[in-house]
């Protein structure tokens, strides 16, 4: 009975302890919820800014680079007019690459440069090199998009042989429209943040809004840079021209026929024997010349001192032997 009573006591103690923990957790959650509610009330202007930005995002976008038209829509427009307007709104970036063989790359580069500068374009790169008998040149230019075909016609007219001709068009209309929409939203949000900062009195609110304002300002500058790049790329097409002179003609290889074997021939044997005799005589004469010029002087320079040393040593041996016997 005592064991059962102790077990019930422990169970009651554990249950009470868990109940206290649960009660403390509920109190803490209630307190935290109150803090969150207070914070939401303090930053209510920022939430209003975000809501306004979302509402602006739903505004339809008009033609690329132009604001949406005011007033009611013209319902009398035909399908062909709508298609034409849609085509006019496309923003296309066109680039071209040409590779060709020309008579004089340097003169061609000068002619292209003069034409581009006269028609409102500019040079991106220009390089002329000479590799042996082959002269090569590379020129990169930007020209107004409406003069792209004229520029290509001028360039290809200088070619003796056109190796490649590539024109690539990239449609960036959607990216441009999205960037414009985001830019408008960010500019509206920036204006509302500045208005809120003018009337804000709480330091904490001012700091939070200022941080968001700096971030928004950075995004605005990035989007403006992207829009400017797409506008310039669409307004001025890029052309890269690679050219070279004709390669020198390949030399013709002359194949010497192998002489046919005609059996034993006396004249050939006599000629080979004569050549062998001349070789032997040349060898013997070379040996004599080397012996006289090299071997004989070397033998004299080495042999005479060696002989003198040998004589002196042998002369002293009998003297040393006699002195040993006398002692």
Explain this structure to me?
The radius of gyration is 51 Å and the shape is flat. The chain is α+β, with helices and mostly antiparallel strands. The protein has helices at residues 2-42, 44-57, 79-88, 105-118, 148-157, 173-199, 203-235, 266-326; strands spanning 92-101, 122-131, 134-144, 161-171, 236-244. The chain has a five-stranded mixed sheet.
Number of helices: 8
Gross morphology? flat
Assembly type: single chain
Poorly predicted sequence stretches spanning 5 or more consecutive residues: 31-88
**SSE topology string:** HHHEHEEHEHHEH
What is the first-to-last residue Cα distance?
Answer: 136 Å
- Secondary structure category: alpha+beta
Largest sheet: 5 strands, mixed
- Could you tell me the strand content as a percent range? 15-25%
Key terms:
five-stranded mixed β-sheet; alpha+beta; 64% helix; 327 residues
Précis, in short:
By secondary structure, the protein is an alpha+beta fold. The chain contains 8 helices and 5 strands.
Please specify the SSE layout and strand pairing.
Elements: H1 2-42, H2 44-57, H3 79-88, E1 92-101, H4 105-118, E2 122-131, E3 134-144, H5 148-157, E4 161-171, H6 173-199, H7 203-235, E5 236-244, H8 266-326
Parallel strand pairs: 1-5
Antiparallel strand pairs: 1-4, 2-3, 3-5
Helix pairs in contact: 2-6, 6-7
């Amino acid at each position: 009975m005592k064991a059962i009573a102790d077990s019930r006591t422990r169970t009651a103690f554990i249950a009470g302890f868990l109940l206290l923990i649960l009660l403390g957790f509920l109190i803490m959650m209630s307190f935290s919820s109150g803090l969150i509610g207070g914070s939401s009330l303090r930053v209510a202007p920022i939430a209003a800014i975000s809501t306004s930005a979302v509402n602006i995002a739903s505004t339809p976008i008009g033609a690329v680079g132009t604001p949406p038209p005011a007033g009611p829509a013209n319902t009398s427009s035909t399908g062909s007019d709508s298609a034409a307007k849609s085509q006019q709104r496309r923003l296309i970036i066109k680039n071209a690459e040409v590779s060709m063989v020309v008579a004089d790359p340097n003169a061609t580069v000068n002619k292209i440069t003069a034409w581009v500068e006269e028609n409102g374009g500019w040079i991106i790169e220009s390089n002329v090199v000479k590799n042996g008998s082959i002269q090569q040149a590379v020129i990169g230019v930007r020209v107004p998009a409406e003069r792209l075909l004229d520029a290509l016609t001028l360039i290809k007219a200088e070619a003796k042989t056109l190796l490649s001709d590539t024109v690539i068009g990239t449609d960036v209309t959607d990216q441009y429209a999205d960037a414009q929409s985001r830019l408008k939203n960010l500019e509206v949000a920036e204006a509302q943040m500045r208005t809120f900062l003018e009337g804000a009195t709480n330091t904490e609110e001012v700091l939070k809004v200022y941080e968001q304002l700096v971030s928004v300002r950075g995004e605005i500058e990035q989007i403006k840079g992207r829009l400017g790049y797409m506008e310039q790329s669409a307004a001025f097409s890029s052309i890269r021209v690679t050219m070279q002179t004709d390669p020198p003609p390949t030399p013709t290889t002359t194949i010497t026929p192998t002489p046919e074997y005609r059996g034993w021939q006396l004249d050939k044997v006599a000629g080979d024997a004569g050549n062998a005799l001349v070789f032997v005589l040349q060898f013997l004469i070379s040996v004599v010349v080397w012996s006289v010029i090299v071997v004989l002087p070397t033998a004299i320079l080495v042999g005479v001192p060696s002989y003198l040393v040998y004589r002196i040593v042998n002369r002293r041996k009998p003297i040393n032997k006699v002195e040993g016997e006398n002692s």
